[in-house]
Write a structure and sequence with these properties.
By secondary structure, the protein is mainly α. The chain is built from three helices and no strands. The protein has a domain at 53-77. The chain binds zinc ion (ZN).
């Protein structure tokens, strides 16, 4: 009765002719090329540090500041509070 009608409806919901898979446009050569491309272009995880100013870390400012501090530290030596 009503049940039968429902089942038919859900089946109708799925479009039979789905676009987006143009298999006829892909030749065997393309598939071969795709294999080569995927082999030559593996994904890489790159850890990227970003500075607070938006540049890649260390940005020129940070490099300069580090240099200054390094020079300063060697100049005054370790703290001679002891
Ligand atoms: Zn910066």
């Amino acid at each position: 009765m009503g049940r039968d009608d429902r089942a038919r409806r859900t089946g109708d919901d799925q479009p039979s002719g789905r676009p987006g898979r143009p298999e006829s446009l892909v030749s065997a050569q393309d598939v071969e090329d795709a294999d080569d491309i995927l082999f030559a272009h593996p994904p890489r995880v790159v850890t990227r540090w970003l500075c607070g100013c938006g540049e890649d870390y260390p940005c020129p400012d940070v490099r300069f500041a580090r240099l200054v501090r390094a020079v300063h530290a060697t100049d005054t030596g370790v703290d001679d509070s002891r």
